[in-house]
Amino acid sequence: MSAADLEPLPPPPRNLRMVIEYDGTAYAGWEKQKNGVGIQQLLQGAIRQITGEDTSVNGAGRTDAGVHALGQVASFTLQKRMPAVDLHRALNAVLPDDVAVLALEDVSLYFHARFSATGKIYRYLILNEPVRAPLLARTSHHVRSPLDLDAMRAAARELEGRHDFAAFARDVEPGDETVRTIWAIDVEREGRCVAIYVAGDGFLYNMVRIIAGTLAHVGVGKISSADMPGVLASQKRSSSGPTLPARGLALLRVFYGGRPSARPKDSCREIATP
Amino acid sequence: MSAADLEPLPPPPRNLRMVIEYDGTAYAGWEKQKNGVGIQQLLQGAIRQITGEDTSVNGAGRTDAGVHALGQVASFTLQKRMPAVDLHRALNAVLPDDVAVLALEDVSLYFHARFSATGKIYRYLILNEPVRAPLLARTSHHVRSPLDLDAMRAAARELEGRHDFAAFARDVEPGDETVRTIWAIDVEREGRCVAIYVAGDGFLYNMVRIIAGTLAHVGVGKISSADMPGVLASQKRSSSGPTLPARGLALLRVFYGGRPSARPKDSCREIATP
Predict the structure, then answer these.
(1) Would an 8 Å CB–CB cutoff place A251 in contact with chain B?
(2) Is B97 labeled as catalytic in the residue annotation?
(3) What is the distance, to the nearest Å, from the Cα of residue A66 to the centroid of all Cα atoms in its chain?
(4) Which of A142, A253, B211, B224 is least crowded, fewest Cβ atoms below 10 Å from its Cβ?
(5) Are A163 and A232 in contact (CB under 8 A)?
(6) Chain B residues touching A103 at Cβ < 8 A
(7) How far is CA A212 from CA A148, A196, A268, B24, B183, in A?
(8) Mean pLDDT for the stretch of residues B216-229
(9) Is the pLDDT of residue A266 over 80?
(10) What number is the average pLDDT over the span B216-245?
(11) pLDDT at A4 over 90
(12) CB atoms within 10 A of CB A85
């Protein structure tokens, strides 16, 4: 067999990195479900429509149904040589109003949005007024009773650091690795809302929503910050607070290439602002 | 005929004032249309469901389809003696997520939300970034080109005061009174958006959306602030800018009992903050 008999090798694929914003209200989550469209599926459909290629879009965080993103990151490979700036514009032209690609660029073939990620910041918004707010209904959870922010901050301090977060996760199976490091939890009054920012190297299933529910219980006086070490030590889901609804949660930012700062207790705001 | 033959007079009705917030995306506007539900109709239905009474809910501003409100005011009369605090809670329990009554109280029978109003503040939100923002898609209009805020502010100064705003209104008929007083127009950078606040004693049809469209044209350099006196003087709709989409507009607040401040050029923010 001579060299001429060999099929020419296809050109190496390119690897692209995208930053995505979405209003998750209408979606089954990042991944599709039996009864709903996933953001991943929608993006793959848009890429196919423009390039004719079937590709797998890998997201950094598999957000649940109804969860939003202001800075989800995803990567995918492509054969087509279309400039990234043109593909970016074309994607936003075919995607619906509630999903947009904020940035798109060619990256090293070694980059993988999920496996290369070294941390994430999430925000949970609690509308904290006597009456619900229609213009914030899709993006916040309503708590009528006034929240004690100082108590919530004291509890947040207890959760920061490297801990076993089994008590703050859904569906933990025996043998699952449940130790994670929370870099910072900030609790801020923002207009009509209380915003809880949680930054860390990794998150268990429903972890941010359970942390938010636990801090909300602290905020209304049902439990105290002094209970937090015991809740962590229990490793029991039943000892932490409720899982707050998906609508209040948004994935703000994904980190790559190591922890963004050397200080042990940065505020999420400092981390989130590049 | 003796006094005993007379029917007893019904008790005098009570008059109630409500402050309403709504996400107008799903509605035909304040008033119902052939093809859509109105906010007014929705409120009247909720009041009927709770009290059994048919009443007419009079709104201060007849917002168009897709326009939002953070402080719409409405009044209605009622026979039923239910405490306002209970009616308030019951209304919010039956209204959908995108409409809420923020406040409800008994007021003098002389109060009428529309005829007693002495002014209003509206806000128009322009998302001013290269890419559209899914989480702001329902509440803002997207302008890609960077807006020159100083130029917009200079143009806003020319529109403040008492003028004939015929050039800034839709469907003006000969003989219509088109003189209005704009108390203040503020142009502010707010996060990813440019917010235009317009406060005044009254507004013509589409007036705020046309003012916003004209200021946006100034912001991208299509016209200049020096053109504003000529646009006003022309009294022609064709000389002002485009009517921006309804989604960016929100009725923030309605005033009663005279102008909120004696100074001639208050900022809207000062006026809006009681």
Answers:
(1) no
(2) no
(3) 12
(4) B224
(5) yes
(6) 131
(7) 13, 7, 15, 30, 43
(8) 97
(9) no
(10) 97
(11) no
(12) 10
Chain B residues in contact with A133 by the CB 8 A cut-off are 21, 100
Give me the percent of chain B exceeding a pLDDT of 90: 84
Q: What is the ipTM of this complex?
A: 0.86
Could you identify the residue written with the tokens 């203040």? B184
Q: How far is CA B221 from CA B34, B129, B231, in A?
A: 40, 17, 16
pLDDT at A232 over 50: yes
pLDDT, tens digit (0-9, with 9 covering 90-100), for A216-230: 999 999 999 999 999
User: Global pTM?
Assistant: 0.89
Question: Pairing relation of β-strands B117-127 and B141-142?
Answer: parallel
- What is the per-residue pLDDT for B262? 42
A99 close contact with B: CB closer than 8 A: yes
Residue A13, phi then psi, degrees to nearest 5: -70, 160
User: What distance in Å separates the CA atoms of residue A268 and residue A240, rounded to the nearest whole number?
Assistant: 23
Within 10 angstroms of residue A231's Cβ, the number of other Cβ atoms is 20
Structure tokens at A32: 């599709």
Instruction: Label residue A107 exposed, middle or buried (CB < 10 Å: 0-12, 13-18, 19+).
Output: middle
**Residue B47 and residue B104 in contact, taking contact as beta carbons nearer than 8 Å:** no
Total residue count of chain B as it appears in this document: 274
